[in-house]
Amino acid sequence: MSVEKQQLTSLLSRVALRDREAFEALYTLTSPRLFNLLTAMVKDEQLAADLLQEGFLKLWFDDRRYPVEHPWAWLCQSMRNLAIDELRQRRRRQGDNQSPYVLSDVPSTAMNVSSQSKDPQRLDVCLEALAYEKRNAIVLAYQHGMTHQEIVEHINSPLGTVKSWIRRGLQELKRCLTE
Predict the structure, then answer these.
(1) Alpha carbon separation from 65 to 13, 28, 171 (Å, rounded)
(2) Per-residue pLDDT of the chain in tens (179 residues, 90 and over written 9)
(3) How far is residue 38's CA from residue 76's CA, in Å, rounded to a whole number?
(4) What angle is formed at CA 75 by the lines to CA 21 and CA 103, rounded to 5 degrees?
(5) Which of 36, 53, 138, 158 has the maximal Cβ count within 10 Å?
(6) Secondary element (H or E) of residue 125
(7) Which residues, 6 or more positions from 26, have their beta carbon under 8 angstroms from its beta carbon?
(8) By the 8 A CB rule, do 172 and 130 touch?
(9) If you ran DSSP here, which 8-state letter would residue 67 be given?
């Protein structure tokens, strides 16, 4: 288990017991990366800051146990879900009936292409067409916010292989989305 994973697991366990020092330490350790994730998704720093605060408030007041197997992925997914909910609410208020995917869910090299796509379900089709390893690596990186090293540990594959799967998968997605 990596040092960061051990630290996150310990802090989350202590936060579950309402340890304020652990909560502050968890915030200090994770908030910069989580803020960057949220900002990339919502494209608005103030909204990202609000969502980060909301996410940590939910974390503090939630009575359930936190997952210890993949704490960083769980934190990223929790924050990502808040951003997606906010973006969907904005779309509803604006009467926009786009794809259920948030464009930021799409890997950056395919983002411009998918926004120009006439078929909103195209991303689903293209993702499903990828080989399992490539799709899994891309989802872990772009939807769960995992670093390459975290993906290596999660799926127990060499770093070079993970990087190749992501790079080749993004290339295939781009080709598929532009067809």
Answers:
(1) 8, 21, 39
(2) 567 888 988 998 898 888 999 999 999 999 999 999 899 888 889 999 999 999 999 988 876 667 767 888 888 888 988 888 888 888 777 765 443 333 334 343 333 333 334 454 677 788 888 998 998 888 888 776 677 888 888 888 899 999 999 999 989 988 888 87
(3) 9
(4) 140
(5) 138
(6) helix 122-129
(7) 8, 11, 12, 15, 59
(8) yes
(9) P
**DSSP-derived secondary structure for 2-21:** -HHHHHHHHHHHHHHTT-HH
Report the alpha-carbon distance of residue 108 to residue 114 in Å, rounded. 10
**Residue that is written with structure tokens 């290596």 in the block:** 152
The model's pTM: 0.54
Residue 138 CB: number of other CB atoms within 10 A? 24
Q: What is the rounded CA–CA span in Å between residue 86 and residue 92?
A: 10
